[in-house]
Amino acid sequence: MPSVTHDDAPLLADLMPWSVAPPRLGRGWPAAPDPAALKARWDALVKASGPDREALFQPTRSRTGRTAVGRLPGGTGGTERLERASGPCPDPVRVLRAPFDEQWLIPDQRLIDAARPELWRVADERQVFVVETGPAPGRGGRTRGERARGGVGTGDAGGTPGPPLLATSLLPVFRPGRVRPLYRRPGGAEPNLTPGLSEHLTARLGRKAAAVDVLAWAVAMVRPGPGGLTVPLTGDAGVWDAGVEVGRRMLWLMRRDGERPRLPGGRRPYVRAPLPSRPPSVRYDRDEEALCFDEGRISPVPPAAWDFEVAGVRVLERWCAARTEVAGPGTLEAIRPAGWSQTWTSELLELITVLALLAELRPRQVALTDGTAADPVTPAELRRAGVLPVPRSARGPASVLDAHAEGPEGQLALI
């Protein structure tokens, strides 16, 4: 199959020009894998008063109990200062807390150092957020703290590299990469593509290049470059169709919407021995292809799923650590579920399947990107067509002057 190259490819930042820094929580306790734990943490916070409440809150320069902020777009959190807050916890919402790790978050801007309201404003069932995962932090890809937690398992054969871009239907709340929404407005309106790009590709390919197809192509083809992530484009309809097919499969697996992904036959992972109520950190038995939680056991777990890394960190290891680590006493994070839940087991089995299926797509991605360019659409061509340079207005959020939200202390805020 002819393929395309990254030697002279447009930057992702020029194809999807509006990007936002990821939300920064500033404290870990407003997010957790279990929504009931979040409500218990909130109750403990509002029952405390004075210095005790402030200490539990964990103030930073951006947020203290006296900080005045408005309500998040679409949120239900209060707007009085947190030092006076009372009442029930705002209903937790599902977010992407780490690569492939769906957790829960209390949607209250008073608890979040940098909430990025512009992302909350466009988050709905039509939205797709793509997140740049960033490079590995060093040899082995794990920080000192992550290595110290153990549970690495046998064998140090290199990891399976994950995609430079993650796609999710949920609001991503992890660092370090930029977040690029597919749409600039709610309801799937105004694609976040540089003006004229879709029309130019449609003319070159002889078929409509819809925004979701451009996104699928980008997810499948994106690679790091010296100036940032690059996305080679092609005018060859056959190559385009192959890349979009791979990208749509990746989008479906990452977003996990609709029908649940499955591995065929005996390759499906099962719980072979019940997991303990309080499992220790996970260990991988490479010979048996099994995840071991003390006496608990899940198999088969393909090596490619265990070795699957994002930014140099094993996804499964980090996912399990988020549910087994013990927080320090006297903190809100110490309020955790009494034991491992059946919901987590179901989510873990599905995650293993997703990572294994994504790893299987790697050879098809390599086949698309390895070799000589097939009718490339270069930055020079896009400049001649007037698609580049990107208009300054396309790099900022869309106007939302027709919306309003509750500001600090209940006042009306025009945004």
Structural class: alpha+beta
The total domain count is 1
| Major pleated sheet | 4 strands, mixed
Helix content: 25-40%
Can you count the helices? Answer: 13
How would you state the average pLDDT, rounded? 88
Shape: flat
For the record, give the distance between the C-alpha atoms at the N and C termini, rounded to a whole number.
Answer: 50 Å
Order of strands, main sheet, comes to 1-3-2-7
Number of strands: 22
Our estimate of the beta-strand percent is 15-25%
Rg measurement, Å: 23 Å
Q: Flag low-confidence runs.
A: 138-157
What does this structure look like?
With 415 residues, the chain is α+β, with helices and mostly antiparallel strands. The chain has one domain (12-414). It contains 13 helices and 22 strands. Helix 7 (211-221) crosses helix 8. The longest helix is centred in the middle third of the chain and has 19 residues, at 237-255. The protein is flat and about 65 Å long. Residues 138-157 have low confidence and may be disordered.
Compact description:
The protein has about 425 residues and is of the alpha+beta class. It has helices at about 10-15, 35-45, 50-55, 115-120, 145-150, 195-205, 210-220, 235-255, 305, 315-325, 340-360, 360-370, 380-385, and strands at about 30, 95-100, 100-105, 130, 160, 165-170, 170, 180, 185, 190, 225, 230, 235, 270-275, 285, 290-295, 295-300, 310, 315, 375, 405, 410-415.
Task: Walk me through the topology.
Elements: H1 12-15, E1 31-32, H2 35-47, H3 50-57, E2 93-98, E3 101-105, H4 117-122, E4 129-132, H5 144-148, E5 160-161, E6 165-168, E7 171-172, E8 179-181, E9 183-185, E10 189-191, H6 197-205, H7 211-221, E11 223-225, E12 228-230, E13 233-234, H8 237-255, E14 270-273, E15 283-285, E16 290-293, E17 296-299, H9 303-306, E18 308-310, E19 313-314, H10 315-324, H11 342-360, H12 362-369, E20 376-377, H13 379-384, E21 404-406, E22 412-414
Parallel strand pairs: 2-7, 5-18
Antiparallel strand pairs: 1-3, 2-3, 4-6, 4-8, 9-10, 11-12, 13-20, 14-17, 15-16, 16-17, 18-19, 21-22
Helix pairs in contact: 7-8
